[in-house]
Amino acid sequence: TSRADALRRLEDFRHLFPIIVLLALAVAAALAMRQIRHQMKPLDQLTGLTRRLAAGDLTARLRLAGNDEFAELGRTFNDMAMNLESRFHMLALLSDLDRAIISASRMEHVASEVLGHIRKAIPSDGAGLLVRDGEAGYYLLTHDPAHAGVCLRTATVRFGLDALSHAQPACILSPAHLPEEFLRRLGSALPAHLLAFPIRHDDCLHQVLLLAYLDLPEPIDTAVRGGRALADRIGIALSSLAQEERLHHQAHYDALTDLPNRVLLRERCEQAIERAQREQTAAALILIDLDNFKQVNDTLGHASGDQLLLQCATSLRQQLHPDDVLARLGGDEFVVLVQDLVRGEEHATLDRRLRDLRAALAEPITVSEHQINTPASMGIALYPANASQFDELLQMADAAMYKSKRGQPGGFQFYSSEFTRTSKIHFDLTQELRKAVERSELVLHYQPKIDARTRRIVGAEALVRWLSPTRGLVLPATFVHLLDEMGLGAWLGEWVLDRACAQMRQWQDDNLAAIPVSINMSPVQFERTSVVERVQAALGRYRLDVDRLEIEILEATAVNDSHKVRESLVALRAAGIGVALDDFGTGYSSLVYLTRIPANVLKLDQAFIRGLSGDPRQQEIVRHIIALAKTLAYSVVAEGVEEETQLALLVAMGCDYIQGYLIGRPLPPDEFAERWLR
User: How far is it, in rounded angstroms, from Cα 394 to Cα 382?
Assistant: First the structure.
């Protein structure tokens, strides 16, 4: 029985053993699968996050606890993802900055782009931009989370940044170098460290990009590279905006005086007209033209002319009211835009203003050691009384100004519809004169000069006339200034030189008396042409001796400090050609210049002669001028002599030669020869 029981149990175990083995294998497999699933879960998460990262989700992060290999792998993945995210934000920020640089009109917009996104690109506890405010110090810009595209700005504080190395791309700056107010703006807590990135412009420290840290990042290289890249972009933006500002300034402001030019004046005038229309007020354009600028510019040189314009601009600025606009149109023309005038009271209000402007410009100005008076003619046009557009107002002010200049230089004139007719006359005359030059309608007449004692002819002056088929004989006062405006002033001088020499040759060939002829030369010829060469060429071309020609120059030309003018005068005298100082006493030089001018003849202006007979003071002035001229070895010619009493007085004073209607009027060549040379 015992054996049978044992065998039975053994048989039962034999039947159960496979089951037990299978159960054990199943448990082992289950445990193995559970362990595999536990081990594979982080890898599955990592695979999924890698796919998200590849799809562009840079926020993907793996969260694992522990210190095993999977945890280390997760931390490495997270570092990689954070690095990619920072680099992506940096690239995006640089791209946004590039667009901002192209489109931004203000530096604050660029600063807002940087400060609004910098912490995504470069992890930090705060960021700001130090900006230099001239000599006053620095102010700090920080991001304003409440308003897009806007920066918060501190007050300007004066402090030094000597600790900042301008040569290094970045440096660690102690917070102690900044005001506490600035540090509080950089973050919720006062920073312990500052990474500073200097931004230079025009070789000066202009801005500093600041990154604030409670603890410096490890490693710091990434933050340094990113900060420097942003700082460089800000520097590019600075240069770009500065260049745009320069171009805008060049397009809207006068290069010499830095006043608004015609373009900006038009904008301001159109705004003033809109405002006046809205508020039912009036506005005025005052066109100012310096009466003697051309004389100063041609005789003393362009540098002196520029000085004169600068000082006049300063004088005009001092007379401006807060809403006035002063502009320079070019040359010697300035414009004042006056706003907020009461309609119906424009003339009374402007009358006071115009007198103040005139008085300011009438003050003597020192230019190149010369005392110069700069009276100015002014023309005024009103909105809405005269016109409603800028171009019309300017045209009308111009017509009024020319009316003032012709009537009373140094005065002012309000526009009248009558001036339009005057402007048309001026235009028509200019067109006729242009055709007259083409048709050779200009001629020379000759006025005799006689010995004051013997009354024998000693020479003649060649004077230009316009023999117009419609206007008759036109005197030079009517058209010579127009030739200057047309740019033909130098041409006229060369034409007179050639025609006078040709006429002297003709008289000589006709066996008539060989007298010297004097011609006038303008300052333009001395400045823009080789006077000596042209005079010698003309004398050679017509086979004339040098003593047959005399050059008359204005007093202002003679006292010109220009090296070229003086050289020309010295060369003319050295060649034996006479130089006469014309219209003496009407310029602005002192008598001291008589000792320096290389001339041999002094011509007394007719202004001294006109009242000579009945004015003892005038007689004394003329007597002393003649005596001084004699002392300096000048011959003296009196112009404009019309009375015998004037002639007698001049002879008694020692005057050498006489010219004027008492002796003879200017005549055409044939009549002159018949009357004086036969």
Answer: 10
Cβ neighbours of residue 542 closer than 8 Å, sequence gap 6 or more: 501, 502, 504, 505
Is it true that the peptide bond before 469 is cis, omega within 30 degrees of 0? no
The answer to whether 462 and 494 are in contact (CB under 8 A) is: no
For residues 14, 15, 21 and 24, what is the CA-based torsion angle, rounded to 10 degrees?
Answer: -120
CA dihedral 9, 12, 14, 16 (to 10 degrees): -130
Q: What is the 3-state secondary structure (H, E, C) of 465-509?
A: EEEECCCEEECHHHHHHHHHHCCCHHHHHHHHHHHHHHHHHHHHH
How many helices (DSSP H) and strands (DSSP E) are in the chain? 21, 22
What Å distances lie between residue 603 and 340, 480, 622, CA to CA?
A: 53, 21, 11
Integer Rg of the chain from CA: 46
All structural domains of the chain: 103-250 (3.30.450.40), 262-416 (3.30.70.270), 430-677 (3.20.20.450)
How far apart, in whole angstroms, are the C-alpha atoms of residue 78 and residue 357? 76
Maximum distance among all Cα pairs of the chain, rounded to whole angstroms: 192
Report residues of the chain scoring pLDDT below 70: 1, 35-49, 52-75, 77-79, 81-82, 84-106, 163, 165-167, 418-423, 555-562, 585-594
Q: Token pair for residue 176?
A: 């102690």
User: Please, which residues have CB within 8 angstroms of residue 126's CB and are 6 or more apart in sequence?
Assistant: 119, 142, 186, 187, 191, 211, 212
Distance CA 60, CA 80 (A): 10
d(CA 627, CA 377): 38
Residue 152, judged by CB atoms within 10 A of its CB (0-12, 13-18, 19+), counts as middle
Per-residue model confidence as pLDDT tens digits over 255-312: 999 999 999 999 999 999 999 999 999 999 999 998 878 777 777 788 888 898 999 9
pLDDT tens sequence across 633-651: 999 999 999 999 999 999 9
Q: Which two tokens stand for residue 565?
A: 């003018």
CA distances from 534 to 493, 504, 578 (A): 11, 17, 15
Please report, for residues 423, 590, 621, 632, the alpha-carbon distance to residue 617 in angstroms, rounded to integers and kept in the order given.
42, 19, 6, 23
The HSE-up count of residue 624 (CA atoms within 13 Å, CB side) is 7
Asked if 282 and 384 touch (Cβ cutoff 8 Å), the reply is yes
